[in-house]
Write a structure and sequence with these properties.
The chain has helices at residues 50-54, 118-126, 149-153, 165-168, 172-183, 200-211, 224-231, 247-255, 276-282, 303-308, 321-332, 355-364, and strands at 2-3, 9-14, 23-28, 36-46, 72-79, 91-94, 97-99, 107-109, 136-140, 144-146, 191-195, 216-221, 238-242, 260-265, 284-292, 312-315, 345-350, 370-374. By secondary structure, the chain is α/β, with parallel strands linked by helices. α5 (172-183) packs across α6 (200-211).
């Protein structure tokens, strides 16, 4: 068992109840077990709807009390006796999509939701209740993704990419988008329409599609100023269309770019009746593919277009472990650009006690590439 000199206690942000404000507590350090690592959290990226989840406004299941959190950039402080390659001091990206070891179909989001089955609920409540909004966390070994510190943090003059550890905090968002894009096998040179392309996850899908070699990306959204910002990433390959609320008008506009090879959507729940589903699915070429990743309710799709076009409609929650390997190749290869060079912006950095201001900033600044971080 490899450890560094660890403190006996640490500070953690605790959610005692959905009806109470979060509080910072001094807690005993998490105990190391087989199959786990103790990490020192460097930064935790907040999603725009963090307050909605942890206040109960979005009815995500999870037990209380708990330490909320999510994906983070961290350094390994200790590893269990069954660790084979992970070492103390190593820089890692900790992703929060946890799969059951005896049944990988049991899934939960560390610090966010206990999932939707008795097995995932038990795993979350009994083993992974306390997440990353703390100075230290105990995390599954397999959720620690090694980062090549030399490649990512060294200057370009030294052969590196010149990022900071805070720039790496953005990794969680494009990883989710990559899960959906690789699921429909997006190929270099293909044409894809992405909706809504102006938010954090849809904007990240545009960034990832560029990195994967898409020839033309049609970015659709309602905010024209935000669409201009997306297009500025690479105007020769990114084209924009405004959603009109009329599927026929949207379809005619899409036809100007030729048949779409693929369609990616990561819309929020309130968009389930939007016209763009019909227009975008109807724009696909024969044997075209569509990926749905949004948190939608029941959705009406154009079955006639799907049947007679032999279309593939796939849905994806998050990503598979094998997806992470391909995603990290894009990151370490410099194809997926992080930091300001990739159109990204750190909108604020906050301590644990500033959690409320951090939640507000995450909700207010939620466009493509915008990142609010808590620094435990």
């Amino acid at each position: 068992m490899a450890t560094e000199s660890l403190p006996g206690t640490h500070r953690a942000l605790v959610l005692k109840s959905r009806d109470e404000p979060l509080v910072v507590e001094i807690r005993p350090l998490p105990q190391l077990t087989s199959g786990s690592a103790i990490v020192r959290n460097l930064n935790v990226k907040l999603v725009s709807y963090s307050r909605e989840v942890w206040s109960g406004k979005r009815p995500y299941p999870f037990p209380t009390p708990m330490v909320p959190g999510g994906n983070c950039v961290a350094r390994v402080a200790a590893v269990g006796p069954d660790a084979t390659t992970l070492k103390k001091g190593q820089l890692v990206f900790v992703h929060n999509f946890i799969a059951g070891r005896d049944n990988p179909d049991e899934l939960c989001l560390f610090g966010f939701t206990s999932g939707f089955s008795p097995g995932s609920n038990s795993m979350f409540e009994n083993e992974w209740r306390d997440s990353t909004l703390a100075e230290y966390s105990r995390v599954p070994l397999e959720n620690c993704i090694p980062l090549n510190e030399t490649r990512l943090l060294d200057s370009p003059q030294q052969g590196g990419l010149g990022y900071t550890t805070d720039d790496l905090g953005y990794l969680q968002v494009p990883l989710v988008a990559y899960g959906g894009l690789i699921d429909i096998d997006l190929k270099p040179g293909e044409t894809i329409v992405i909706t809504p392309a102006t938010g954090q996850f849809g904007g990240a899908a545009v960034q990832v599609a560029l990195a994967m070699g898409a020839g033309t990306i049609i970015a659709m959204g309602r905010n024209e100023e935000a669409l201009k910002r997306v297009e500025s990433l690479e105007p020769t390959r990114i084209k924009t269309l405004k959603m009109t609320g009329n599927w026929e008008t949207e379809l005619e506009a899409l036809k100007a770019f030729g048949p779409m090879d693929a369609f990616f959507d990561i819309s929020p729940p309130m968009a389930k009746d939007s016209s763009h589903y019909k227009s975008c699915i109807s724009s696909l070429r024969r044997n075209g593919r569509a990926s749905l990743m949004g948190g939608l309710g029941d959705l009406t799709v154009p079955a006639w277009a799907m049947v007679f076009g032999s279309l593939q409609l796939k849905a994806k929650w998050m990503y598979n472990r094998s997806d992470i390997v391909g995603f990290m190749r894009l990151v370490h290869g410099g194809l997926l650009k992080l930091g300001p060079s990739g159109g990204n912006e750190i909108t604020g950095k906050f301590g644990l006690e500033q959690w409320s201001e951090a939640f507000d900033m995450a909700a207010e600044k939620a466009r493509m590439g915008q990142t609010a971080l808590i620094i435990p």
